[in-house]
Amino acid sequence: MVVLARAPRFYAELGVPDTVEGRFEMISLHVTLLLRRLHGVDRALADAVLSAMWIDLDAAIRELGIGDLSVAKKMKLLASNFYGRAAAYDAALKNADDAELQSTLVRNVYDGEAPAPAAVAALAAYARDIAASPELDIDRRAA
């Protein structure tokens, strides 16, 4: 998911901030989309995806130079942020109106500062496409 979340298109064409926070937001979006697909299908795989995400984020935080004493606090904040975003994306994707999804993306991915409306619409369409796809092969959509 990290490789997919770092696809250059998101940052160069869709205006996602190319920052630690922007990357976390894209990881959160992609993991949420994957977990939606796995819901009720394979709980063990969903748990493994989450576990791998947390292990990877822990390592990334340490690489950024966050001290051991602060890692747990930072991970708790990231978990809170992730689960809040996952719930918001899930609710927005259940609504057929793109206004809620676009608003959620602006609030989270773009930190309240939307790029061109076409970029937000394209990211919303991308998320909807993955959410509606009957297959889990999402690599081709990010390219």
What would you say this structure looks like, in words?
This is Ubiquinol-cytochrome c chaperone domain-containing protein. Pfam families: Ubiq_cyt_C_chap. The protein is mostly helical. It contains 8 helices and no strands. It has one domain. It is globular. The model has no long low-confidence stretch (mean pLDDT 91).
Shape: globular
Secondary-structure element order, as H and E? HHHHHHHH
The profile of the biggest β sheet is:
none
Number of helices, counting only DSSP H or I runs of 4 residues or more: 8
Average pLDDT level: 91
Number of structurally distinct domains: 1
Radius of gyration: 15 Å
Distance between the termini: 13 Å
Relative helix content:
over 70%
**Number of E-state strands:** 0
Task: Identify the notable features of this structure and list them briefly.
0% strand, mainly alpha, 143 residues, globular
Summarize the structure.
The protein has helices at 2-5, 8-12, 20-38, 43-63, 68-94, 98-108, 117-132, 139-142. It has 143 residues and is mostly helical. The longest helix is centred in the middle third of the chain and has 27 residues, at 68-94.
